[in-house]
Amino acid sequence: MSMFLRHFLFSTLLITTCLAESNWPQFRGEGGLGLGTGKPPVEFGAEKNLKWQVEVPFGHSSPCIWQDKIALTGLDGGKLVTICLSRKDGHELWRAAAPAEKVEGAHRIGSPATPTCCTDGERLITYFGSYGVLAYDWNGKVLWQKPLPPPIVEFGTSASPIIADGKVIIVADQDVGSYMIALDVKTGAEVWRVDRSEFRRSFSTPFIWRHDGIEELIVSGSLRTRSYDLKDGKLRWSASGMARVSNTSPIAVGDVLIVCGWNAGGDPDDRVEMETHEAFLAVNDADKNGLLSEKEFPEGPLRDRFTIIDADKNGTVNQAEYDAMRDIFAKAANQLFAIKAGGSGDITDTHVIWRQTKQLPYVFSPVIANGRVFTVKGGGLASAYDAKSGSPIFQAERLDASGEYYASAVTADGRVYVTSQRGVISVLDAASDTLKVLAKNDLKAPVFASPAIVDGVIYVRTNKHLCAFGH
Fold this sequence. Notes:
- By secondary structure, the chain is mainly β.
- Among the domains are: 277-330, Orthogonal Bundle (Recoverin, domain 1); 363-471, Lipocalin (Beta Barrel), CATH 2.40.128.
- The protein contains five helices and 35 strands.
- The strands form nine sheets. A five-stranded mixed beta sheet has the order 14-15-16-17-23, with no helix packed on it. A four-stranded antiparallel beta sheet has the order 1-35-34-33, with no helix packed on it. Strands 2-3-4-5 form a four-stranded antiparallel beta sheet, with no helix packed on it.
- A hairpin with a 5-residue loop joins β27 (381-386) and β28 (392-398).
- It is globular, with a radius of gyration of 23 Å.
- The two termini are 32 Å apart.
């Protein structure tokens, strides 16, 4: 009996320890890979496998989960807040407002509370473009604050912070003065800063590529993806071939890095072309002042993108701004591609091992499961490719779950979970050589935030609630 009791206690301790190590510490979980733990339900909704549901402030940030607590951000009563909830039943444990003087603007379907929190277990890091970075302990005490200037982009801030090598990494790609900064996670002191002013707006969360005993800091931006040294921010390599705006985040399997980018005007049959500044000015500069206002742009794709071309947001476009955007449109390349490890310098022609240029996702970040890369294009067109070779397993197969896909994919227990903006979560069989939809779960509410899967429970944020689904 004594041996049995000892065995029981040891087993209980082991199980408890394993559960305590199952966390979702940043955007897309451990390592940013979207890999969940446990055996989550295939079918779920308001009347099936719902563990709990609670109201939360409006926001697009995803759950950040550490042991028995969940962190989210939101906009409530004009205040940008970080809230902490109980993982057990969703009740609110504490909330803290950021001391932002003004809340930045956002896209009409966006939110000023879009970056997902991250944690090293001791500190909870929150980033708002309207204020900067705040560090809390898991009881809500402010440990340090680092004000940063609001990014110069009218769509708002989206890239999430990550923690690596004892540093908080913030990528602020914007229309003027892009940069990346590393802060000491314990103090908030600046460790290094990288000038990225040659990059325009992008919204991708950075990624740590771990392979062959090293760590590379990967950042996808306009036209290029780059690798940096975590220690000092020095450039390791650069690969061209990205969209003009990067929204998706990189992922990897071993020594293969997967990068994806799509934006309007970058497909071969849908290019946005701009004539020379001299020719455009001669026809459209009505007041002959050498500058172009929005009204002076003819109706069409360029006027639609006036706020993008007007980099400094002063209401007029000068020659430098015009020429810069003309160059970006000319070089933009929409594609999903794979990079092999070991490169330095410009690796575009030496280390890109495969490419796909059709049926690409817009904001949805792919996931790797069963050695395959899964993507969903807006409208609900699913594709899967062999991660090593890029060979299609299936391509542009219809999910019968239409609408845009802003949430990124997650996977667990041999299944892939993909979420439409309309709130339909389709569950795919990761092992099937054809598209096999195991279930379609309609939450009947808009979803922009990426789900988290921890210990067999799926945490999904809708426009008004945080829901937990499990057996």
